[in-house]
């Protein structure tokens, strides 16, 4: 299998490449962060049997990551995880990622309801779901049992928050949140969703993301950018229309999980389930307590995993939970056993707290293993150790350590000074990710080796001047004062520059290593696969409507399937030259396709279906007529609407004028520009050289990287007007 085809499949299975050759990282999804004894034992066994590493890593999204697994041992490791009901599937890729929840769900005395049942149903419903297999980009969901929102809904694509309204239980939905290179706080999509309708609303939001989010630019494809591009009102309208269709299919009320709800007053805003300083705390069952386990930098050895398992078994405790601060909670401890359990934990070398008054530092793996990491975030986090403020350290702007919601957050980057590359951190100050909080303010950039001094200065100033709320205190400071804490920490004289040009604990000068690759060929597959899966989803809906004899909805589903197919054909065979971001008008694509002249049977037969659907009146059509059309659409989809059939036909029939000095593909959307370039190159005999013009930025970068993977020598130069000329050569005959 070609690498470009294999990569999305590997990611779909939750397997990431590492910086190290021939080993993989396994990301294990732990919904809500909840692990029982058997699962702890199996994770420890996978680590000990299949990994060359010494620890597993707890993530800020309640996953577990197992590193240094040789590629040929991955299948065995996945099978072993499966024996404990654990999976890595869709922990990566453009899917619904691990669903997170408040770490105290089910035991918190403040919650309105235990959201675990709703979370579990969401996981079951949308894993392997045809709508979620090829989303434009990843989709993150959180569940909180009350308005205190310990699951940090403001940073999620979709956040579900339990609440009451007029005596009825339900949920507030937040949508469009996210961190990364352009942080955006979620907004209220629906202030109240009745309990029984929750999963219909979740599906509606996923449908909107799948249908309308940007598939052309990967860096602009999260749901949050849809709100930026089209506005909240338009996104809400799409969501409303999608919901109406789903409720027509399922009925107005869906599955009622019949969870037990209680009306509780909102706890103090200062209470946070992930704050180890709050523990031990009483559960809603006052005869039981919860304690915390401090996990330094989120890393646990196989021995520590086994110790925790033995502790749970010894005291007959139900489970352990991962928090978004990369620590653990042990629930269900009988009050009379509290001291005994704490002593046993401390005797094992683990601890139920940090040093008094401190937090453990949150960190991603950074350059230790991550192919995207720029700086040694773990090395810096070890240097910072425990802090009186919440400190989060990420090795790049993707922000896996969630720096924008920390008291002091930072992500690594490279900066050039006088032509020399230095490791820096962009800092963030005074952030929070819960309902009603604000993301951090952008602080100064600080050389990696001076970050500890900067953090100490900020902490000291707050101790001297602050009065409890760090976020409020930061917002009272001027930008000039924030910058002043780093003013003398910048590279200045030659001696300091020599030191600052090295990352934490590094003996050699800082470099940014490139481990990425082109994704254009992969994007071509994603573009097709997404359409194929959307048709499959629509076909499933069509079958339900047919069984209910809702003929108008059946014809709407048939029309939708044919419109999707027509849109694919138009984009592959008759692409519009446009660089503007716009939503494909599928109905117009169907109309346009009817008018195209072609001798290809694939397109001619689809044109016939398009004409039949245009002439069909859903209000007056009869049962047999619709049934016949269902059979014809199914027959066409089975024969022609397959990836191999479409790409083979495209490659055999696309034409590119290669006689011109520069082949201008700058107005073709990604990945069509790459497919046309590849077709033109395949018609050439080596040795040769050709020049293509692509839109600059991400389209050119991905095309260049993909062409290099195809074995061509590639050089490029700016061509003005946001374009780049790319010279492609092949010298071997």
Quick summary:
With 733 residues, the chain is α+β, with helices and mostly antiparallel strands. It has five domains: 3-82, Alpha-Beta Plaits (2-Layer Sandwich), CATH 3.30.70.3340; 109-250, Sulfite Reductase Hemoprotein, domain 1 (2-Layer Sandwich), CATH 3.30.413.10; 378-386 and 397-500, 2-Layer Sandwich (Sulfite Reductase Hemoprotein, domain 1); 530-651, Four Helix Bundle (Hemerythrin (Met), subunit A); 655-730, Translation Initiation Factor IF3, CATH 3.30.110.40. The protein is 38% helix and 18% strand.
Question: Layout of SSEs?
Answer:
Elements: H1 3-12, E1 15-17, E2 23-28, E3 34-35, H2 37-50, E4 55-58, E5 64-70, H3 74-82, E6 100-101, H4 116-126, E7 141-144, E8 158-165, E9 168-175, E10 187-194, H5 198-212, H6 223-230, H7 232-250, E11 281-282, E12 288-293, E13 299-301, H8 302-314, E14 320-322, E15 328-334, H9 338-347, E16 362-363, H10 377-384, E17 391-394, E18 408-417, E19 420-429, E20 441-447, H11 451-465, H12 470-475, H13 479-484, H14 494-500, H15 520-547, H16 551-573, H17 586-594, H18 601-615, H19 623-640, H20 643-653, E21 663-664, H21 672-682, E22 688-695, H22 698-709, E23 713-720, E24 723-730
Parallel strand pairs: 6-7, 7-8, 16-17, 17-18, 21-22
Antiparallel strand pairs: 1-2, 2-5, 3-14, 4-5, 4-13, 8-9, 9-10, 11-12, 12-15, 14-15, 18-19, 19-20, 22-24, 23-24
